[in-house]
Amino acid sequence: MLDIENLNVWFGDGRDRVDAVKAATFSVKQGESFGLVGESGSGKSTILRAITGLAPHWSGRITVDGTDLGKRRDRAFYKKVQMVFQDPYASLHPRHSVDQVLSETLYLHGVGDIDKRVSTLLEDVGLGARFRFRYPHQLSGGQRQRVAIARALAGEPKLLLLDEPTSALDVSVQAEILNLLTDLREDRGLTYLMVSHDLPVVSHMCERLAVMKSGEIVEMMGVETLRKMTPSHPYSQSLLGASVSHKITA
Amino acid sequence: MTLLEVEDLWVKFPTRQGIFEAVRGVSFSLGKERLGIVGESGSGKSMTGRAILRLIRKPGIVEAGHITLEGTDLMQLSEKEMRKVRGQRISMVMQDPKFSLNPVMTIGAQMMEAYLLHKNTSKTQARAKSLEMLKAVSISDPERVMRAYPHEMSGGMGQRIMIAMMLIPDPQILIADEPTSALDVSVQRQVLDIMDRLVTERGMGLIFISHDLNLVAEFCDRVLIMYAGRVVEVCDADRLHEAKHPYTQGLLNSLPRIEDPRKHLVALKRDDAWAEAPSVSGVKADA
Ligand SMILES: Nc1ncnc2c1ncn2[C@@H]1O[C@H](COP(=O)(O)OP(=O)(O)OP(=O)(O)O)[C@@H](O)[C@H]1O
Ligand SMILES: Nc1ncnc2c1ncn2[C@@H]1O[C@H](COP(=O)(O)OP(=O)(O)OP(=O)(O)O)[C@@H](O)[C@H]1O
Ligand SMILES: [Mg+2]
Ligand SMILES: [Mg+2]
Predict the structure, then answer these.
(1) How far apart are CA B141 and CA B139, in angstroms?
(2) Is pLDDT above 60 for A246?
(3) Residues A17, A194: Cα–Cα separation, whole Å
(4) Is A250 part of a structural domain of the chain?
(5) Predicted structure pTM score
(6) Complex ipTM, two decimals?
(7) Residues of A numbered 231-250 whose beta carbons fall under 8 angstroms of chain B's beta carbons: which are they?
(8) Which domains does chain B have, with CATH numbers?
(9) How far is the CA of B44 from the centre of ligand 2 (A)?
(10) Number of domains in chain A
(11) Strands (DSSP E) along B50-143, which ranges?
């Protein structure tokens, strides 16, 4: 479904040049869920942004569903691929109500019976009808993130790029959203590429994952390795180790 | 010693469907301690924090018996006096870090401005201090970050920059709203250590708003658990996992666990009675 080969992404020039992603290579099969974890600032979001065409400078190869991606993304691409951004504040238009955001998205994707679809979408993400006509500033952080997820699901994409989809959510809503994502994947064969720093969430959602540090993928592993805490790279060891020591059991 | 006392705090918003009560009669005190506030999305955590600083936007309404900061009732202060409290005595790290930074000013200029505003020093000193603060929050290339704009930062970098900025004025109280939600565990550790030192060494009071129950249990001293605008339970943080309220237990049960794979997570079953019960007081008797 998704093939990334030798992907480099950079920003700026001279002394301010940042090589945000260096020679990243991985692929995600149709129906699979793949996790990206690692240091803050290591280039995880940048990989997702490069796939959606939001990174100005990149080299290498990105193939989605058999099609090599060039500089531009057409409408067919956005029907197939949707992204949930890390920052739910920046990604919603401040002057558009929840209803406008979702109706417009459905309209652009050529979906019929918009009114009914909007209520189903809201229900799917656990937001009741009373949120339908609210504006972003009238919603809490977690409520906004759920609107962003509903918007991404609106066009029934095949590949979902999820950037910290539940880090703004409390654990009960997180459970509901993750359950929804699990069911959608099963029912519709969706493919997920998911960034999260929450290793229990990654272990719950993904079959495989890549660990990033300073723009590079330092290790790829199956979820069993994460569960058994047996990674081989020293950075992955420290990342997994830090996470265990701070978790307590309920 | 009590730094801050909040009594019977209400936050209300007029909406199409009538008045919406986001915070309903919350009372608590804050000493030189780490006070956690947890609770589900929309339970009123952020509004509680913002109300203390009187940062609720119109047409929102804040009402309280009193919000006392070392003898001064913040509810009685003029907007001008309140501006002095904000930033100098009470700082708040907002849940939306990039949103609270100025998008058209470099990070360095913003940090230095904040420093010069609060401290009577030279630009050179302000620059040196800003670099030092960025390093303290584990920013690996502080020189570049000083020259960069907020949109050029990753999610976690934005959060760390906000924390560094809020600590510049040496506040007596820091309200941190989901301050580490975008950080990987090792960076999170470093940021928590900084806050921890401020509490233990400088006697700062910390209100730590988070939905990460494990983190709060480990990091905080006391925890308020909020539901539908009220405090439903108050407990010592290290006993959070023994919490009695079915809502708190429900939250704990809905966490995914590395060692316990399952297809579906346990979703919380809500009970209307939780929203009805009066708010539990989080005021701690002075020791
Ligand atoms: N528009 C931009 N201009 C300049 N540099 C950028 C830009 N976007 C990202 N960067 C830089 O690229 C690097 C990687 O950023 P990215 O957002 O991919 O990190 P991340 O792994 O998602 O981190 P986090 O977990 O903190 O969100 C960072 O050093 C960041 O400052
Ligand atoms: N301007 C507004 N008008 C109407 N309702 C509002 C407004 N601002 C906030 N609310 C509502 O107030 C409630 C409490 O919001 P608050 O931001 O305090 O939640 P929270 O506990 O911080 O949640 P989260 O964990 O999702 O950030 C929410 O249900 C929200 O929808
Ligand atoms: Mg990111
Ligand atoms: Mg909030």
Answers:
(1) 6
(2) no
(3) 26
(4) no
(5) 0.87
(6) 0.81
(7) 238-239, 242-244, 246-250
(8) 2-276 (3.40.50.300)
(9) 6
(10) 1
(11) 61-63, 66-69, 72-73, 90-93
